[in-house]
Amino acid sequence: MRKYITVSILFMMILHAACTRREVRYRVNFGNDWKFILADRDEFREPGFDDSGWRIISLPHDWSIEGEFSDKHPATVSGGALPGGIGWYRKTFSLDSKKAGKLFNIEFDGVYRNSEVWINGNYLGKS
Question: Is the residue at 5 inside a domain?
Fold first, then answer.
């Protein structure tokens, strides 16, 4: 099962599994082994897209601070002397078949603004 996330975040997945008489919660830090590109194309959200040429990064990550400060970058609410643009973050992982039918929650921490989330090509929402 492939998962693609398109936001600049620290991604945590919480697995809720119903057990006899109690609920068990597993928390998994998904901060490592993300792929990143500073570009935007519609096909980036597709599960089969080849992202093998993208940079491998760990989260948290802020690509704009890797740029050069310049008076040519807007110092407005959408900038601050650093370059702007759209960046995509993707992560692929598999789930054990024993987890089929279980409830999953995803928590995003550190998303600045204007983020959208896609999972397996399905639009999950935006902030």
Answer: no
Enclosing domain of residue 60: 10-126
The DSSP call for residue 22 is: E
57, 36 Cβ separation under 8 angstroms: yes
What residue has token string 């948290």? 60
Q: Is residue 67 part of a domain?
A: yes
Q: What is the CATH number of the domain that holds 14?
A: 2.60.120.260
Phi and psi angles of residue 7, each rounded to the nearest 5 degrees, phi first? -125, 160
Indicate the pTM of the whole model. Answer: 0.71
pLDDT digits (tens, 9 = 90+) for 79-105: 567 777 888 999 888 888 888 888 877
Q: Give the pLDDT confidence of 54-69 residue by residue, as tens digits.
A: 999 998 888 888 888 8
What contacts 5, CB < 8 A, 6 or more positions away? 11, 34, 89, 90, 91, 117, 118, 119
Question: Residue with structure tokens 């919660």?
Answer: 25
Number of domains in the chain: 1
How far is it, in rounded angstroms, from Cα 7 to Cα 116? 6
Is 4 a member of any domain? no
